[in-house]
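for the writeup, i need someone to sanity check this before i put it in the appendix. the sequnce is what the collaborator sent (i think, or maybe the updated version? ugh). structure was predicted straight from it, no edits. if anything looks off just tell me and ill rerun, i have time this weekend
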Amino acid sequence: MVEDRTYLLSRVFSTSRPSETNWDHHMYPPQEDSSSSNLRNGKRASDDDDGELKDDLRRQSKSPKLTGAVSTDDNSLINDIIGRDISISCLIRCSRSDYPSIASLNRSFRSLVKSGAIYWLRRQNRIVEHWVYFSCQLLEWVAFDPVERRWMNLPTMRSGDTFMCTDKESLAVGTDLLVLGKDDGSSHVVYRYSLLTNSWSPGEKMNSPRCLFGSASLGEIAIFAGGCDSLGKVSDVAEMYNSELQTWTLLPKMNKPRKMCSGVFMDGKFYVIGGVGGGEEYDLATKKWTEIPEMSPPRSREMPASAEAPPLVAVVKNELYAADHAGMVVRKYDKGSKKWFTIGRLPERAGSVNGWGLAFRACGERLIVIGGPKSSGGGFIELNSWIPTSDRSPPEWTLLDRKHSSNFVYNCAVMGC
């Protein structure tokens, strides 16, 4: 059975794991000799192998071999013991935390990871792990695996002083983490972290650059809706980003301009919430926007919209939840009645400044709340999680971990791949 071999394979690849590590030392083994014997048409042979392997896997994945049934193909990745297809079926079921060890075993394994083919195959087989990425210090990001409860440090971002010190927005899509802000010329820029290369690079700019938008991702695509342009004009523009192609595509405009809004995917549709009250639904099939007047979560305390963070919303199992930072409560949206109702409390250490500095995210089947000190010198932040049930049971929060920090959470995103 594949499951039995998967268990054995995970035993082979398991390693003792430190609680925190620098990813690059584990994810990417030293480069092989770059002598002329290893070069082909000006490129390393392994670079060509990466592309050929990914194309080959895409072709084979259309057959039942990699998506369901398995075979005993002699072209095995594991020393011709169990066959290529079963090898890959095992590998895609290993934890992402195991991939640094797997990539160091041989060239075939390394090509699977570095080319991104392993994540493409995981997505085809609906195997997804969700990790939390967040920043509590300028240009510094960490990743947290809520299952293994393991921390990893990302490389430091390289940017100008303006980008470093101004507000930024972030979203994870596919195997990319996008961080958007303004550069030294006050123009909007995008920086992209790639899980495949463990590095930061300039990303492709939007067709209509702006900030304070609502955004959400679904697999390898993301939608960014509304926001403010460089002149401060509130926008009704929506764009779709494809992480595999690194391209932006303009979508039909929303019914209303919005800023300081939030975005989610639910039931295969994109929703933008808040900004000017209510929300809008975008149907990817019909390419049409529909207004939903009562979709904005209620507030326990009224304050100027410019002083408050955008709505803290998240979707788990196609159910919409919201965090009320002022009342310290969690609310759930009833899609039938289009009304919000309170289901329980937020964790005690979920402090914020008018919602700023509090992360409320969906992480697979969990809701994650990351709260930290309201002012500098607070000492640490806490990560709490709760797996919602189908009824209206109140949240029972589980403390996943604590991390020393003198700042609250600047940016947060969840990558599922």
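The chain is about 15% helix and 35% strand. Confidence is low (pLDDT under 50) at residues 1-19, 23-49, 60-75.
thx in advance!!
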